[in-house]
Amino acid sequence: MAPLTLALSKGRLLDETLPLLADAGIVPREDPRASRKLIVETQAPGVSLVILRASDVPTYVQYGAADFGIAGKDVLLEHGTEGLYQPIDLGIGRCRLVVATCSDYDWARSVQRGARIRVATKYVRTAREHFAAKGMHVDVIHLYGSMELAPIAGLADAIVDLVSTGNTLKANGLVAVEDIMPISARLVVNPGSLKLKRDAAKPLIDALERAAAGRAKP
Ligand code: PRP
User: Fold this and answer.
1) Residue 81 CB–ligand 1 contact under 6 Å
2) Which end of the chain is more exposed for a tag (fewer CB within 10 A), N or C?
3) How far apart are CA 194 and CA 202, in angstroms?
């Protein structure tokens, strides 16, 4: 059977990814969260994992350096899905992409007045598309993390960021003022891998699909 490489996002999503992989029969030989290793073999014959920064997962899959990847819809929207086959919503990493401001900022009024609003985000493309669709002109400031600081520090009026429990917004005195879209993690596949390694790849996709469907049941 052809060897397969699955690219995973490190960070919070990895905690939810590993149990799903286990349900699909893919168990790492060592815990990638406890190791500095970037390539981790699994107990599934021929299947290895590479552990990447989330935003690099689609790039590895697009170029075929990994056959599969698991990445959030937020990451895929920013990267674009050209050269990626996207067969399954895995139902993990569920959160929402929102616009948030300091709780004392009058967002509705600024929007109504047509004020020039500054928005800090790591999701530059998605934020631009969201505001353009609403006919709003905003200045988008690109940040790489800790977006919640930007309105407090006076860098921006608002942020576009992910909200899961809401604890980070709350802890920093921010509130969500617009909901952009729900987010969850997707399986992405290199189309060439699916063609050339179909005998190995198809059962793995099917196993992940079954595992995701099994978890979706109440
Ligand atoms: C994400 C997101 C928020 C936080 C929201 O950051 O950017 O800061 O989680 O989660 P909550 O609603 O449960 O508090 P993450 O911790 O993934 O790190 P990042 O800043 O590197 O994106």
Assistant:
1) no
2) C
3) 7
Do 47 and 89 lie in a common domain?
A: yes
- With helix as H, strand as E and coil as C, how does 75-133 read? HHHHHCCCCCEEEEECCCCCEEEEEEEECCCCHHHHHHHCCCEEEEECCHHHHHHHHHH
Structure tokens belonging to residue 64: 């075929």
Q: With bands split at pLDDT 50, 70 and 90, how would you rate the model's confidence at 215? A: confident
Nearest C-alpha neighbor of 175 from the set 159, 189, 187 = 159
Instruction: Answer yes or no: do 100 and 173 share one domain.
Output: yes
The per-residue pLDDT for range 154-211, each reduced to its tens digit, is 999 999 999 999 999 999 999 999 999 999 999 999 999 999 999 999 999 999 999 9
**Count of structural domains within the chain:** 2
With a 6 A CB cut-off, is 167 part of the ligand 1 pocket? yes
Q: Ligand 1 within 6 A of 146 CB?
A: yes
State if residue 163 touches ligand 1 by the CB under 6 angstroms criterion. yes
pLDDT band with cut points at 50, 70 and 90 for residue 87: confident
